[in-house]
Design brief:
With 292 residues, the chain is an alpha/beta fold. It has eleven helices and twelve strands. The relative contact order is 0.18. Bound molecules: magnesium ion.
Length: 292
């Protein structure tokens, strides 16, 4: 079996200890490949190998709600997502003027009606006072969660916010180890934890922290990489969410199916993906090990 390493032009190494993060990404690629291989050898989708609780996972779309998108475009894309079988809509917040966030959010809620699950993502843009002010202003909108209201490492601030608001708090996508997630879990910093398997070093560490999160009673909504996280979310005991992001589509031949608000776990062995011709053109190096 050949696994290929693709250079991503936008590859970032920001955050603490860039060399460690680069090494972690490399280890994660091998870890994910080994889990894929293990499931293929068992003849099972990875979710089933891990003991899946479900054959599909609630899914929501992020990519239609960026800060710079005009509100009419956000609404049109949200409608399209729902028509495509995606269940929830997430929009970005953190405009220079918070009133603009509130206007956009109210417009989207009015457009979608009260029954469509709606989330917001602030990408760490607020200080504690601003986050609390925003959270109080939107309590009546019935948001599924407020994501990354504060600096990713401010566990104490997230915990205060989670305690002060009815709306659930979600965070964790930027963290790059099980230990950092443990700090978050122990501080009761979030109602919903959002680990990113490639960022924490692969599926193996993801499973360790998912066990801890379940033990703490947290919900799970992994960040990005739906091709991996769909399987991991399907094997999480509590009903999770998976983030729909089509950005990695060019890498693969197959497409994930969304229907009735859920993403369907493919019944193909392993992760269920083969690399596309385009991906092979982008390949800069490859290593071969094992056989499926
Ligand atoms: Mg996010």
């Amino acid at each position: 079996m050949t696994y290929e390493f693709v250079r991503r032009p936008s590859e970032d190494l920001h955050g603490p200890h860039p060399p460690r993060l680069a090494l972690l990404r490399a280890l994660a690629a091998v870890d994910v490949a080994l889990w894929d291989l293990k499931a293929k050898r068992a003849g099972l989708p990875l979710a089933k190998l891990l003991g899946a609780y479900r054959d599909s996972v609630r899914t929501y779309n992020t990519s239609g709600g960026f800060l710079h998108a005009p509100i009419e475009e956000v609404k049109a894309r949200a409608s399209q997502s729902l028509a495509d079988g995606i269940g929830g809509i997430k929009i970005k917040v953190g405009q220079p003027d918070m009133k603009e966030d509130l206007r956009r959010l109210a417009a989207v809620r009015e457009h979608l009606g009260d029954d469509v699950p709606l989330m917001v993502d602030a990408n760490q843009q607020w200080d504690r006072a601003s986050a609390l002010r925003f959270g109080r202003a939107v309590e009546d909108l019935g948001l599924v969660w407020i994501e990354e209201p504060l600096d990713a490492y401010d566990a104490e601030g997230h915990a205060q916010l989670a305690a002060a608001l009815d709306t659930p708090i979600a965070t964790g996508e930027m963290l790059s180890s099980v230990a950092e997630h443990v700090r978050l879990i122990e501080a009761r910093a979030a109602d919903i934890i959002q680990p990113d398997a490639p960022r924490v070093g692969g599926i193996t560490p993801f499973l360790r922290l998912a066990t801890l999160a379940d033990h703490a009673g947290l919900q799970l909504a992994p960040h990005f990489a739906m091709e991996i996280h769909l399987h991991l979310a399907a094997a999480y005991p509590r009903e999770p969410w998976v983030e729909h992001f089509e950005w990695l589509n060019p890498l693969f031949e197959e497409r994930l199916e969304t229907r009735d608000g859920r993403m369907i776990v493919p019944d193909r062995p392993g992760l269920g993906f083969t690399l596309s011709e385009q991906c092979r053109k982008w390949t800069v190096d490859s290593v071969e090990f094992g056989r499926a």
